[in-house]
Amino acid sequence: MGAADRELEFHADRVEEVTDDEYVAVTQETFVGPAIDEFREFEPISDETTVYYLYVTDNADRLVGVMSLRELLNAPEDDVVEDHMVTDLVTINADADPEAAANRIADLDFPALPVVDDENRLVGVLRTDDMIEVVEEEATEDILKSAGFTFTDVEQSRSSAILESSIPRILWLRLPWLIVALAGGLLAGGVIEAYEDTLEAVVALAFFVPVIMDMGGNVGTQASTIFVRGLALGHIDDRNAMKHFAREGIIGLLIGLIIGSIGAGAAYAWQRNEPYAFELATVVFVGLVSVCVVASVVGYVIPWVMNKLGFDPAAASDPLITTVKDVTALLIYFGLAAVLLSELL
């Protein structure tokens, strides 16, 4: 079976473990015509296997030369392959590190390289396509280590703590953050109560409260999920965290401008016969923009802070994000409404 058809469910420590044994090889005394016939008769197990080279060995299976398929087809059929093969070989040792081998293939820009043992006997072929999974596995492992994370000592332990602990332990892990969310909900309710007069004057404002809060929740959940995944995989670390924070703020602003325009258009169309239609649309627009920006930024910042403090970002982030974005959005929403619709109060 070729390496391309194997799932790398193990950690490869040697190139030989990921070497493809589907290739065409002939001895150096072979004529070009029979060598071409070898290509014609070659039937790889996988349809995705592509053969780029003819490998030439001596009678002891030691690699002595290589011919590209193009060179082989252009050579006279009554010549021996030894007269046309390239002897300045680039090979990879079977005991080499897979990551180093992948980097070497990338640097040389070859579609495949022959793999040999210590006695230069041909063992197999290492193809660029076959190395993709190896590169991803090795790179992910290195990034996680450099960031201080491994799936075994962090993510698995947190998952085990949530799934396999006793019920009191699970409650201890989850309840504090839910209590924080409850406190945030009560605080958001206090904000609404503080602007009760504004709500009574313009009842339409109440219609958009759940819209703003739900939109903030969705944006915040998206942002925190993306951030926690990037953090776990090592894509986000101390060196690039600020760049990601700023970028997410810009993304939140763009999302807010689009969503806010749609929401404002709906508000204006709904209340177009009312004297405050434009002011209501403005309030909805600013409220949606602000909640999207706040939710995006805190969706990144809070998981980062929680991780730095040693808490599980997956359990702690959402309640805190909900509290911050709800209170902030409602303060902006009703505060702006009180200013723009003051003549109605």
What does it look like?
The chain is built from 11 helices and 6 strands. Residues 1-10 and 143-153 have low confidence and may be disordered. The protein has helices at 32-41, 69-74, 98-108, 132-146, 151-164, 167-194, 196-201, 204-232, 241-270, 277-308, 313-340, and strands spanning 24-27, 53-57, 63-68, 92-93, 112-116, 122-127. The strands form 2 sheets. The protein has a 3-stranded mixed beta sheet with strand order 1-2-3. Strands 4-5-6 form a 3-stranded mixed beta sheet, with no helix packed on it. The chain has 2 domains: 15-146, CBS-domain, CATH 3.10.580; 163-341, Tetracycline Repressor, domain 2. The radius of gyration is 32 Å and the shape is elongated. It is mainly alpha-helical and 345 residues long. It is found in: Cell membrane; Membrane. Homodimer. Pfam families: CBS (PF00571), MgtE (PF01769). Acts as a magnesium transporter. Residues 85-141 form the CBS domain.
